[in-house]
UniProtKB/TrEMBL annotation:
Natural source organism: Acidovorax carolinensis
Name this polypeptide is given: Phosphopantetheine-binding protein
Domain Carrier intervals: 3-80
InterPro entries assigned: ACP-like_sf (IPR036736), PP-bd_ACP (IPR009081)
A Pfam family assignment: PP-binding
Segments forming a coiled coil: none
Length: 102
């Protein structure tokens, strides 16, 4: 698992969604984190903003069961390194590190 990506995901869940760190293991499925459907959508939007990218719904639909944090990390990593994409050039938003480092 890519530490920076996973750390950012875990910080986002802890900071914005008040999920205790011990409930955020890499193999946790999104639906097991205690977020309702609206919160899951908000999480995906916050994740996209944090990494300054957009993930197509066919690759990450928060209503889909069984998406683990490891899988989510892989999806983000794939979008960050997509050749020629603006996302690959920009990387993680500076706002994430500033806002989550509080």
């Amino acid at each position: 698992m890519t530490p920076d990506i996973y750390s950012t995901i875990a910080l986002l869940l802890a900071d914005k969604f008040h999920i205790p760190a011990e409930k955020i293991p890499p193999d946790a499925a999104l639906e097991d984190l205690g977020l309702d459907s609206l919160s899951l959508m908000e999480f995906v939007f916050a994740l996209e903003d944090a990494f300054n990218l957009r993930i197509p719904e066919d690759q990450l639909d928060p209503r889909q069961r069984g998406i683990t944090l490891t899988r989510l990390q892989d999806i983000v990593a794939a979008h960050l390194v997509a050749p020629g994409s603006l996302d690959a050039q920009v990387g993680v938003s500076a706002d994430v590190h500033a806002g989550l480092a509080k």
